[in-house]
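Task 17 of the worksheet. Students: predict the tertiary structure of the chain below and write it out as structure tokens. Keep your answer in the requested format; marks are given for formatting as well as content.
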Amino acid sequence: MASVVVIVLVAVFDLIAFGLAIAAEQRRSTATVVPDNEKNYTYCVYNSDIATGLGIGALLFLLLSQIVIMAASKCFCCGSGLRPGGARSCAIFLFLFTWLAFIIGEACLIAGSVQNAYHTRYRTLFFLNPPNCQTLRKGVFAAGAAFVFFTAILSEFYYVSFSKAQTSVPYGGTGNIGMSSF
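Model answer:
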């Protein structure tokens, strides 16, 4: 039977990660081109950089959620064997897709955080074209949030399927092929 504590804990961590990723998307850095005091040069001025911290927070909560689910299921490779059948097949399928969604979600969150923290520092002469102020494209943190959501759903179903497939008693049946003393 699946542990309710593990399911609730993972759901809370994933919900926090999803909320932080959405907040990071809403609070991406923006830049404006500003002239210096003598009006000889123009340069980029960025607003607050809170989205980077929110993205890293989402990344850490998603990582914590994955650690809890893998520790509870012993990462699918350690521990007692699983009972053959549909639950084991479903658990294997969900295990693979949980890791795939997790890796993509983490990649989106780390890439968004790194790109959001990047600020162009060069300046140009006032009569030349204004500098290109690099900012994060829309949707990077939103993609990370979507994959956080997919990871949450897949990991919950994985844990339930894994729990259904666990065997509580060792195999004690007789073989189908009778052996004789010959």
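Marker's comment: The chain is about 55% helix and 10% strand. Strands lie at 31-35, 41-46, 123-125.
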